[in-house]
Write a structure and sequence with these properties.
By secondary structure, this protein is of the alpha+beta class. It folds into 2 domains: 2-244, Rossmann fold; 253-353, Double Stranded RNA Binding Domain (2-Layer Sandwich). 26% of the residues lie in helices and 27% in strands. It has helices at 2-16, 24-29, 60-67, 98-108, 125-134, 146-158, 194-197, 253-257, 275-278, 281-290, 340-353, and strands at residues 39-42, 54-55, 73-77, 91-95, 116-119, 139-143, 164-167, 180-185, 200-211, 217-224, 230-237, 267-271, 294-300, 306-312, 318-323, 330-335, 362-366, 373-377. A 9-stranded mixed beta sheet has the order 7-6-5-8-9-10-11-17-18. Strands 12-16-15-14-13 form a 5-stranded antiparallel beta sheet. The longest helix has 15 residues, at 2-16. It starts with a helix and ends in an 11-residue tail after the last strand. The mean pLDDT is 96. Bound molecules: S-adenosylmethionine.
Length: 388
């Protein structure tokens, strides 16, 4: 059953085009099941979020089926503070979705004996796959969580791989192992760490999930340039766990209302843009690339209507847009020095008028000296104008 599971998943990933012939031997040599703990929460095949826990000791068949499915498997909640079979508040470690793992490995374009830095060891599966491909002596993997690192080390050792394992903040990279030819990041970044770029040789490649403050996330493939900058396009959508130090903590809406009842001092207007149009991952990403420090939240009601809240990270401004099914115009309230709905609407309309570009038309330049991030559309010479 185990072999059938592994071979079955290999065939499905090969058909999808995500598992290429150069990674197939590693997929077989490093069985996923050896990198998944007995207790885990499989991702849903449709949508996001985790299903109920599966304990291998209680239901080995369900466990193997999940391991050899193309879904991510959550292995830790709340930085390890949560225990038991229920779900915690936030998933903080997983064995990533196989099609995502191999798409990213393919984008990394490793050569024989490339020196690779991985940020986010997690369960150790990726580091073991890389060790099999380029040799463990060429792999450095950094994990912030001591327990995750210990389990990953044991799993890799059992298969004979002992890459350099560092417990610490991956945003620092690992200078002693530099220069690297490739960097693979498996926790999402809101900023590509300047220090890490500096540890990559010219022409080297960084593959990382990049998340915007507004929401939406995509995998970017950056090539390090002679001048120290890193430039490249996005290759597709992603939804990784945030790098621990780059998590954002949000203040409650009441902190924005200054002790008053909504709509407080908000200025009313109407918009023909339905909040429904902005809710998908791609428009969120496009809006996020153009706006600064705005984040959305939906307050939902039983009748299918909801209020889209927009707040700024500086806690100066807020906006609400009320969605009701069947309406052609939607009520807006805005308060504070920034008109957050207007900013979001401008960003959305730009994306719409450009033909609703997908991930691959967007790219990112990170300046080598200042660390400034400049997103672009189609070409690095066409930076997206930040909406203000
Ligand atoms: C999605 S998992 C990584 C999956 C992993 N590559 C695998 O093969 O299982 C994300 C991991 O990133 C780790 N992480 C979060 N912040 C980090 C940081 N600043 N430095 C290093 N690792 C970090 C988390 O603890 C978690 O284990």
């Amino acid at each position: 059953m185990r072999e059938a599971g592994l071979d079955g998943l290999a065939s499905r990933l090969t058909e999808k085009g995500t598992l290429t012939s150069d990674w197939l031997p590693m997929f077989k040599a490093v069985p996923r099941e050896l990198f998944v703990p007995d207790l885990m929460w499989p991702g849903q095949t449709k949508g996001t979020g985790q299903g109920e826990a599966i304990d291998r000791n209680e239901d080995p068949e369900a466990w193997f089926t999940a391991v050899y499915s193309d879904v991510s498997l959550t292995t830790q909640w709340d930085d390890g503070k949560h225990s038991g079979t229920g779900k915690g508040k936030s998933p903080t470690c997983s064995n990533s979705q196989p099609s995502m793992v191999f798409s990213m490995l393919t984008a990394l374009d490793v050569r024989q004996s490339s020196r690779v830095l991985e940020i986010g060891t997690g369960t150790g599966w990726n580091a073991a796959l890389l060790s099999e491909r380029v040799g463990p002596g060429n792999v450095v993997t950094v994990e912030v969580d001591e327990d995750n690192a210990t389990s990953a080390r044991e799993r890799m050792k059992a298969l004979g791989y002992q890459p350099t394992m560092i417990v610490g903040d991956g945003a620092e990279g690992y200078n002693k192992g530099a220069p690297y030819d490739r960097v693979l990041v498996t926790a999402s970044l809101t900023e590509v760490p300047h220090r890490v770029i500096g540890q990559v040789r010219t022409g080297g490649i960084i593959v990382a999930p990049y998340a915007t403050t507004y929401g939406g996330e995509g995998v970017v493939r950056l090539v390090v340039q002679r001048d120290g900058s890193a430039v490249g396009s996005f290759i597709g959508s992603s939804a990784f766990m945030r790098l621990r130090q780059q998590r954002q903590f949000r203040k409650h809406t009441r902190e924005y209302l200054g002790g008053k009842e909504w709509p407080a001092d908000g200025v009313q207007s109407m918009t023909p843009i339905s909040p429904e149009e902005l809710g998908d991952w791609l428009p969120m990403f496009a809006i996020g690339l153009q706006t600064q420090g705005i984040f959305p939240w939906a307050e939902t009601y039983d009748d299918g209507s909801y209020t889209l809240w927009l707040r700024d990270t500086a806690v100066t401004s807020w906006a609400t847009v009320d969605y009701e099914p069947g309406r052609k115009e939607f009520e807006v309230y805005q308060s504070g020095p920034r008109d957050l709905w207007d900013e979001v609407a401008v960003a959305y309309e730009y994306w719409d008028t450009q033909g609703r570009p997908g991930w691959e038309r967007f790219g990112l330049t990170v300046d080598g000296e200042t660390g400034e991030h400049t997103p672009w559309l189609d070409s690095p010479s066409a930076p997206l104008r930040p909406v203000v």
